[in-house]
Write the structure tokens for this entry.
Amino acid sequence: MFGLGRKKETVGLDIGASSVKAVQLARTRGGYELVRLGVAPLHPETIVDGVIMDSGTVISAIQKIFTDNQIKSKDVVVAVSGHSVIVKKIKLARMKPEELEEAIPFEAEQYVPYAVEDVNLDFQVLESTNPEANEMDVLLVAVKKDIINDYLSIISTAGLQTVVVDVDAFALQNAFEIASDLDREQVVGLVNLGAAVMNINILQGGVSEFTRDSALGGNRYTESIQKMLGLSYEQSETLKLGGEVDGRTFEDARPAIDMVNTELAGEIRRSFDFFRSSSHSDTIHRVILSGGCARLPGLVEFLSENLEIPCEVANPLRNIKADPKAFDPEYLEVIAPQLAVAVGLALRQAGDK
């Protein structure tokens, strides 16, 4: 159901807590070109903890994106994240592919906190540094079936067909690989700051070594501003993004924002420390931030200083051609960090493993 690699053009459909993003790419001789792009906002109560609470609103948002942006393809790639997604790197005795296929459900019982019959399982054998070794590293992924079924039902009702179900953290990796010159000597932390969930994927030697989803995202900033300044959700969102509300500016919201910045840095640091404790590497060379909050004024500098690691904002569209007559370059520059997951999904094709 969900593959961990990437290979008829599909549409990357990122159904997030604050918006739905759709990206369609075309393969060209030199790489990729942006064909279609659409974003539709969602009310904050539409999706809670990765669970779709108001399917009608999500279906309408998807249909509006496809209609308004004249997206003709019906084949979509979607991703899941949150506590219902389990990703674990495990060591197994080296065996043949057909033996591994049979062994995975039994192995999964040790690592998945749900009944195996209640989850969809997939796995990927990771590149081994020593092909002669008796053991092999396997990336195991399990997602609760009811979560996947909710997404499949919504996409089907919207008149579309799901051809691949991915995981947010792996979509980030795909987007990063085409946007950056991959230095396999570096350890890179990919941090996607969504509205409700933060995805972390640490790459070592170009391979995913550690993934974690945390229920800390951009909504925490909005809630902090609301509480401290007594503003509505919408007013707090405006301030968070650098706008003005009734004479109040971003500076008035800074104490509330700094409080969440500190919490966010602590959450990322704990994940990085856990990675270091279980890895051969104690160094993370750089951090790439994506998601709607990546452009929060001062956040990159704050995290760089607090984590003592150079941080930068992702641009998943960096190496993707875009016709300036069809897409405003300034708009793309602003929206790009939000599109990391959608771009990563758009790189997938039906039949990928």
